[in-house]
Amino acid sequence: LGFFDPIGYSKDGSAENFNRRRQSEIKHGRIAMMAAMGYITPEVAGKLPGYCSFSMNLKFADIPNGLAAISKVPSAGWAQILAYMAWCEISQDQSAGSPGAKGDFGFKVLTAKDEAGVTKKLNSELANGRLAMMATIGMFFQDGLT
Predict the structure, then answer these.
(1) What average pLDDT does range 60-72 have in this prediction?
(2) At CB < 8 A and 24+ separation, what contacts does 96-102 make?
(3) Could you read off the pLDDT of 82-141 as tens digits, one per residue?
């Protein structure tokens, strides 16, 4: 995977700052992986049946894919999304030294029999998160241009 710091953020040598940035990178990578799948899945598998908003008579099928969906989702829907995001942020202890600070939130998907296997899988998660961040931005640009 290698160390890549072209701007020199880690020149100060602070392990605490590096760990905080790595924690943020893992978190943003996980969100980007979900965003990339959320961007692609409705195109491939279709949309959920039913209504997004009964009061506005708005079905999930009526909401376009991509950036155009931003203006179609009702305010109450955005409030629910933001409330869920806030709950995800404050429901776990992410202070320095805690398991949450290292990205461990008790959801054990990445397991292996030996430490080398776990390290390999965590490095893969980091690389896939970086790729997903670039892919999501690429899909945003493509969607905005067409």
Answers:
(1) 90
(2) 96/16, 96/19, 96/20, 101/19, 101/23, 102/19, 102/23
(3) 999 899 888 877 777 787 777 777 766 667 778 888 888 888 889 999 999 999 999 999
Check if the beta carbon of residue 93 is closer than 8 Å to that of residue 100: yes
- Predicted structure pTM score: 0.80
Residue among 32, 41, 31, 22 at smallest CA distance from 135: 32
SS3 string, 40-63, reads HHHHHHCCCCCEEECCCCEEHHHC
Amino acid at 27: K
